[in-house]
Amino acid sequence: MSLLDIRDLAVSYGGRPAVRGISFSVEPKEVVALVGESGSGKSTTAHAIMGLLPPGGTVDGGRILLGDADLTSWSSRRMESVRGTRIGLVPQDPANSLNPVKTIGAQIGEVFRLHGRGDRRTIRRRVVELLARVGLSDPETRARQYPHELSGGMRQRVLIAIAIALEPQLIIADEPTSALDVTVQRRILDLIDDLRAEFGTAVLLVTHDLGVAAARSDRLVVMKDGLVEEEGPTSAVIADPRAGYTARLLDDAPALSAREFRTAEPGGRGPAVVVRDLVKEFRTGRRPFRAVDGVSFEVAAGTTHALVGESGSGKTTTARMVARFAEPTSGTVEIPGAGPGRLFRRHVQLVYQNPYGSLDPRQSIAEIVEEPLRNFRLGDRAARRTRVTELLERVALPRDVAGRRPRELSGGQRQRVAIARALAAGPEVLVLDEAVSALDVTVQAQILDLLERLQRDLGLTYLFISHDLAVVRQISHTISVMNEGRIVESGTTRQVFTDPCHPYTRELLAAIPEPVR
Amino acid sequence: MNRPKTGLLVASLVLAVVALWALAPGLFTAHDPIAGVPAEKLQAPSARHLFGTDAVGRDLFARVVHGSVHSLSGAFVAVAVGLLLGTLLGLLAGSAGGPVDDAVMRFVDVLLSVPGLLLALTVIILLGPGTVNVAIAVGTGSVAAFARLARSEVVRVRRTDYVEAAFGSGGRYPVVLWRHVLPNSLGPVIALTALQFGMAILAISTLGFLGYGAEPPTPEWGLLIAEGRNYLATSWWLTTLPGAVVVAVVLAAGRISRSIGRSTA
Amino acid sequence: MARYLLRRTAQAAFVLWAAFTVAYVLLQLLPGDSILIKFQNPELGLSPRQIQEIRAYYGGDVSPLESYATTLLGFLRGGFGYSIDTGTPVVERLAEALPATAVLAGSGFLLAVLIAVVIAFAAGHSRTSWIRGALLAVPSLFVSVPVFWLGILLIQVFSFRLGLVPVIGGSALQQLVLPVLTLAVPIAAPIAQVLARSIDRVQAQAFVPVVAAKGASRWWILWRHVARNAALPALTVAGVTFGELIAGSVVTETVFGRNGIGRLTEQAVNAQDTPVMLAVVVLAAAVFVLVNFAVDVLFPVLDPRLRAVTG
């Protein structure tokens, strides 16, 4: 008998179907990866299994069998006895998944208290043991600390400790590492693997990242629009996907499609951006904090240079100084051909990570794209309108979006609008700050294609900021790897990927899931 | 989806009717609000006298209808004072930042530290009682609320990516302020205006009740209730019905404020 | 922490001083000579010399700046000058009125918090949407009711119709019930609104399903996890509404014919008794500043995240 057997499960939110009759099972000790893009219904499925659908969500049909018990027929009181004891949850977002006003120890100990396991002293001892088991140093101190005193990776370890506290048969890991840096991601996934081996727990791994799924699961369940597209042993699905959608996912996932490295043709146009000894200090408290510490690099005209690093590496601060949204403490940014003052903005443009946040919600798409033209008084009203139409066409947006508002567009469409606006005044340098990080892989692939095409057609120079090595591998000609405010290694993309010199770069590369290497 | 909309409809209807009372009271009642018919004094509500009559035989409904103009115009003046002064202060503080921001916000702290009614009473000691003075007094009390909200909205919007992107598109400071910061900051301020309109009607009726507003024969709502107090034991309608009208108007203003707040959020 | 306390104390002192100054300018400087206005009345038949002496008694014959300084120093020493209306020291009148108002305002505030907590938590726990909607509509109704009318309505219903509370006489407790209820209703409304909204917001946070996944019941989550997180914004509002208690007592004491600070304020306004009014305004500001100071200091105790920032 399967540990977990889902049969024809259908879930809807206020009448709108999110999961439309899916079936799959999880055997004891097995890792099953539930893969899909946003809106595929994978997280809804996970929540339905726990009986924790958000308000408005209802199970419309089907059965969720845990052993031989059908959880869909259980009362909420009865479900409480299953949660924590037989099913554990490792949530998505470690930053917000712990109660900020309670100590770590209290929050782990709560699982034992809720299910009446042990007295006060036993619980305290078990908490410390668990903290040590998930690899946290100095567990006694950790137990007395509050969540904000721990890093993201440490918090995720605490959450894992909570999930395994009562040694459940099944752990549901809902995007357990998508909010974490790659090197931390790897260690957390290793920890889950270890614990699974030790306790014989089965894992349902919910993820959007096909790379993670491919590297960590025994079986894959691929979901799209609330339906299962394909299911099978992981290695078989990766090697020979039967569903067209799976094939496209595999193709679009930058980690899995090992394309040719991009190499710059020797154009001899000279550098478009020259950064020398850039330093940025922030004053917090008494000691100034160096976010960027002596960074130098050059970007050849018409090529893409990537700044890669984990959170806190200083890559975004560097980008903002290049785009003149932040003043360097010392050092220089030279951009040949860029005008002084406001004219600088005709030459250099910044594209943000979150396209929704960077578009004024009250403006129409046409107004947004037209704005730089109005600011620089480029052409009369009619000429500007023609230019807007041309720009929308260039970023492959349908003509009728012009009159719409940002909220009526999808994430990918919004990012296209942001790119169109950036191109409006005819710049030569684009600074792309995590510009594809918030998008699903298939959309991400389309935007990356668009960026490549624009670069070819318009001879643009890109400074591409990203934490995602796989994306960087695909788009950039040259790379600088940043860590703690410094560049630890730079070179052509091929050099950095095939022959990394610095140990940090090697660690980063080792952290990306298998097939890309 | 359906129920909240009914609420909004009823609220708009209430305000529309009361506004019509103020503009054209003759359409709603034929009775004289000032001259009474002594023979008909202290009658309970009936078809002839919808809200009953008072101690000198005046039709209470006529007095409520004719009184609406005092409450509404007073509330308009009060809200105008608060909205203009407060929003200007808030916009100034939020967009200028630095020492200007600090100075304005400390001033607002001071205004906030004195309860609205006491501030209003202070202004009344200064200016003397009277309808307009009461309105100004009430408006002064709401300056702080408008200023704080306007400032926090401007500060919030100024931090957004799209405002930075507007500068990035080559926008000059005044252009960005006008095109992006103002339109995106004003939604909550408009919602507060509707709310404060209701609160001003409350405050004006309170000051009228305490005797600092209109002079006695005037049918101001607060005053009506104050006059009805002497007949609590026998004539419940004299206090209950005018008060119910005040509650209805204030509730309606609050309901409209909430729907504005929701649609601009 | 010490530096934070110091800065916060300085700020509180500044607000208090500024409130005094604004009120002083409005009440003493701008209206001109309140003593002249009162005693020049020909009906009193006072000679100019007598008026001069009276002015000197009230300290009205010095330059505005000098008189400001004297008054400010007086306030710092706890002397608030003399009532123009009765000629007695303002301190005495305040001291006489304060206990009754303190009892009224204190009980009113406690009842308001109780009402607010019951409404907000009942709404937060309820899953039936119409019950929830009805509970959440209560605060909007509460803020829309004129306090004086509510008082009158309560007298009408409980004293005249039901005869539960005597209009005249009755024990001190009986006399307190209706005024406290009257005062509590408008104070409860904003606290309930903010608390309910903040409970909703906290319940939508990512840690709530994690607690549920441990096997906790809805009530356990609400009471042991959501409550403390949701308390912070409500505490701020409670601090702000504390100032409204004094304003509320003006109306409540007038309606119920009770003596206290509110009644004193009303008499001061009627008699243009500016020294008393000035003292009441400064007292209200002081209560407000102190309570909000306490709230700010309490914040880091409730929320460990704020300890690092303020330390």
UniProtKB/TrEMBL annotation, chain A:
InterPro entries: AAA+_ATPase, ABC_transp_ATP-bind, ABC_transporter-like_ATP-bd, ABC_transporter-like_CS, Oligopep_ABC_C, P-loop_NTPase. One of its GO terms (biological process) is peptide transport. Residues 4-250, 273-509 form the ABC transporter domain. The keyword Acetylation does not apply. It comes from the Bacteria. Coiled coil: none annotated. It holds the Pfam family ABC_tran. GO terms for molecular function: ATP binding; ATP hydrolysis activity. Keywords: ATP-binding, Nucleotide-binding, Transport. Belongs to the ABC transporter superfamily. This is Peptide/nickel transport system ATP-binding protein.
UniProtKB/TrEMBL annotation, chain B:
GO terms for biological process: transmembrane transport. Its main location: membrane. One of its GO terms (cellular component) is plasma membrane. InterPro entries: BP-dependent_transpt_permease, MetI-like, MetI-like_sf. It is found in: Cell membrane. The chain crosses the membrane at residues 75-95, 107-126, 132-150, 189-214, 234-253. Keywords: Cell membrane, Membrane, Transmembrane, Transmembrane helix, Transport. It holds the Pfam family BPD_transp_1. It is a multi-pass membrane protein. Residues 68-257 form the ABC transmembrane type-1 domain. SUPFAM superfamilies: MetI-like. Belongs to the binding-protein-dependent transport system permease family. PANTHER family: D,D-DIPEPTIDE TRANSPORT SYSTEM PERMEASE PROTEIN DDPC-RELATED (PTHR43386:SF1), OLIGOPEPTIDE TRANSPORT SYSTEM PERMEASE PROTEIN APPC (PTHR43386). This is Peptide/nickel transport system permease protein.
Automatic annotation (TrEMBL), chain C:
Residues 98-299 form the ABC transmembrane type-1 domain. InterPro entries: MetI-like, MetI-like_sf. Gene3D superfamilies: MetI-like. It is a multi-pass membrane protein. GO terms for biological process: transmembrane transport. It is found in: Cell membrane. Keywords: Cell membrane, Membrane, Transmembrane, Transmembrane helix, Transport. The keyword Cell membrane applies. One of its GO terms (cellular component) is plasma membrane. The chain crosses the membrane at residues 12-30, 97-122, 134-156, 176-196, 276-299. Belongs to the binding-protein-dependent transport system permease family. This is Peptide/nickel transport system permease protein. It comes from Streptosporangium sandarakinum. The lineage of its organism: Bacteria, Bacillati, Actinomycetota, Actinomycetes, Streptosporangiales.
